[in-house]
């Protein structure tokens, strides 16, 4: 169900589901078989090999057979993980629940009926956490933080799982509906639900229904529809005079960077990968130049476009560079982009939304076809709290940036 004439679609050009896109065949359960101890695995493997081919198989034929079998299995798993078009390019499914206005019933202080479901690895959910924090909506919109289960779906924990950094959001229980999984929460809505149970998801605890599960719609709602409840109602991340420019930047950044990293990581052909990776780095090169002389994308004011860019940049060297093969350069090699990243990270309340270990685990341990061993690499230097807290030296770019002051006050 899409918001038919939603303005938001224009701001955030999400491709409609391609008719040629391969269907998701089944839940991700099948992508993560239960691990066996190594000795059981290897003796099982050698028994199967002997049974099939006998002891004297020519090595070339063995390699060919294993390669063909693995490649077909990988293609099958990728088609479940990431729908693609016939050229092998990733085709992101559209969000089912769109909203550009809140239903009349919500929210009227002091009764707050909105509950936000997120997962910390997810860049789309991260946008909603950043805008919620900047607008001072943490009391008005409660949050439940799910964690990725071994099959890649979202699960809740019995209690908060403390992280290494104090104050940073951590996975925990479902505070609104007391369910074990996000799928169960989606299933509570009248009429049920059989689609993808994605984060972010905004839930109405009064009507027991999904308000919206499209991140860009949610950040627009948070920015302008809840000012009666916000601690920072005067912070406007989408002022009328900048709307066209924000839309212009989103039109570049969404396909080439936000979804661009996924187009690299989920490409199923060399051609699709080459196209995605070139578009990604051409755009990053251009952004690095632009942000060398501009505080934010649209000038002196932080906007929704910056929030959308930030949540991809903060994951770049942590996960996209290695796991998604975005290897041409690291974020650290872009002096202006990295300074801009640090600048936004250092805005009060933003750092608490960034759980670096949860991001790494979420990507490396659940995207089985991309990392079959599920080994999570060591955190690259330059990615964590300390590195992002280094001075950004960008104050001279703007004389009018009041963002940080507005948020602290
Ligand atoms: N267009 C959506 C994308 C949301 C999305 O893809 N979320 C992922 C996590 S990064 C998810 O929850 N996937 C679970 C699934 O596909 O089953 C948005 O921007 O909100």
Topology:
Elements lengths: L6 H5 L26 H16 L5 H23 L32 E6 L3 H13 L6 E7 L5 E2 L26 H6 L13 E4 L4 E4 L2 H10 L18 H23 L4 H21 L13 H20 L11 H11 L10 H11 L18 H4 L14 H6 L1
Parallel strand pairs: 1-2
Antiparallel strand pairs: 1-4, 2-3, 4-5
Helix pairs in contact: 4-6, 4-9, 7-8, 7-9, 9-10, 9-11
Glutathione binds next to loops.
Protein name: GST C-terminal domain-containing protein
Pfam family, one: GST_C_2
GO molecular function: glutathione transferase activity
Architecture overview:
- It is a single chain.
- Residues 1-33 have low confidence and may be disordered.
- The protein is globular and about 75 Å long.
- Helix 7 (243-265) runs antiparallel to helix 8 and helix 9 crosses helix 11.
- Helix 4 (123-135) links the parallel strand 1 and strand 2.
- Helix content is 41%, strand content 6%.
- By secondary structure, the chain is mainly α.
- Among the domains are: 114-224, 3-Layer(aba) Sandwich (Glutaredoxin), CATH 3.40.30.10; 240-408, Glutathione S-transferase Yfyf (Class Pi), Chain A, domain 2 (Up-down Bundle), CATH 1.20.1050.10.
- The chain has a five-stranded mixed β-sheet with strand order 3-2-1-4-5.
- The chain binds glutathione (GSH).
- Glutathione binds at residues 95, 122, 124, 153, 196-200, 214-215.
- Residues 95, 122, 124, 153, 196-200, 214-215 line the site of glutathione.
- Residues 29-42 have a biased composition (Polar residues).
- Residues 239-373 form the GST C-terminal domain.
- This is GST C-terminal domain-containing protein.
- It comes from Ficus carica (Common fig).
- Pfam families: GST_C_2 (PF13410), GST_N_2 (PF13409).
